[in-house]
Amino acid sequence: MEKYENIRRYLIKACDTPLHPLGRLLETLVAVYRMTYVGVGANRRLLQQAVNEIKSYLRRIFQLVRFLFPDLPEEGGVIPEPSAEPQDGNVQSEEGAQNKAESPQPARVVSSCGLLLPVLLPRLYPPLFTLYALENEREEDMYWECVLRLNKQPDVALLNFLGVQQKFWPVSISVLGEKKQVLPSTKDACFASAVECLQQISTTFTPSDKLHVIQLTFEEITQEVLALLKEDFLWSMDDLFPVFLYVVLRARIRNLGSEVHLMEDLMDPCVQHGEQGIMFTTLKACYYQIQHEKIT
Predict the structure, then answer these.
(1) Is 70 exceeded by the pLDDT of residue 103?
(2) How confident is the model at residue 234 (pLDDT cuts 50, 70, 90)?
(3) Of 267, 165, 168, 139, residue with least CA distance to 214
């Protein structure tokens, strides 16, 4: 694991150094990519080609990196996390050894996305995201119109409209350290920390960073509800989805559809079926739900 981190740090420095062969290669690829997809090249029909080109960069640069570092596992290979258990030296019970063998050990999956996207995608993000915005312009106009209309409602009315259970409605909010009651006219106050957190998704570049923002948003929602209920509880999707839908609406992310499609196309496959994958699917469901929400 330490070797992997050293390789990752080395790549960041190498790609930031124009005199290094990897840095020079990256500089040339970025220049060519921008010349291709900026200006007259900014056509929505070129989106899939632009995405495939980035994936091709990742595959081929990863082959170069593995040539430089032969110990690095191939795509999809696993590096076990170092054990945090103290080494007592001699005796380990048979039962303990069996439990350790049966329990899954934490590990890192090596992938070109996880290793190279953080150094490549920020440089290619502006032209790529422009193509996504052009491709999804029509559906995002529908989404944005609904966001603007729904956001005219105060907090309590919107929570009720979305079907959020009343026990999850905040009864008071903190304003400059003072507690104030949530009134029927209160607006843009409930779940404010989660809303601010989700808005950061537009300031990140890689799918992993965007997924991290989504995860932090879920954690903010959970912390606020825990403080409200004053007891432990487990979310069911029937309870969580309307609350998260409220947060997505209040976040007012203008190009949410482009964010969703970019994450879907370039997400590391190893996270798709895990916790972050479920959170991403929930965000995607919210986006499509907002587009087709009937306002009464």
Answers:
(1) no
(2) confident
(3) 267
Q: Taking the alpha carbons of 260, 265, 267, 272 in that order, is the dihedral positive or negative?
A: positive
Give the integer Cα–Cα distance in Å for 222 and 2: 33
Nearest to 112 by CA among 68, 62, 69, 63: 62
- Give the DSSP per-residue string, 250-293: HHT-TTHHHHHHHHHHHS-GGGTTSHHHHHHHHHHHHHHHHHTP
Calculate mean pLDDT across residues 105-114.
83
Distance CA 149, CA 295 (A): 8
SS3 percent helix, strand, coil of the chain, rounded to 5, is: 65, 5, 30
Structure tokens at 163: 């079907």
Task: Check: CB of residue 62 under 8 Å from CB of residue 76.
Answer: no
Instruction: Measure the CA–CA gap between 233 and 58, rounded to whole angstroms.
Output: 42
Q: How far apart are CA 96 and CA 93, in angstroms?
A: 5
The mean pLDDT value for 234-252 works out to 95
| The pair of three-digit structure tokens given for residue 4, joined into one six-digit string | 């992997």
- In the chain, the percentage of residues whose pLDDT exceeds 90 is 69
Say how far apart CA 178 and CA 176 lie, in whole Å. 6
Q: Which long-range contacts (CB under 8 A, 24 or more apart) does 172-178 make?
A: none
Q: Report whether pLDDT(97) > 60.
A: no
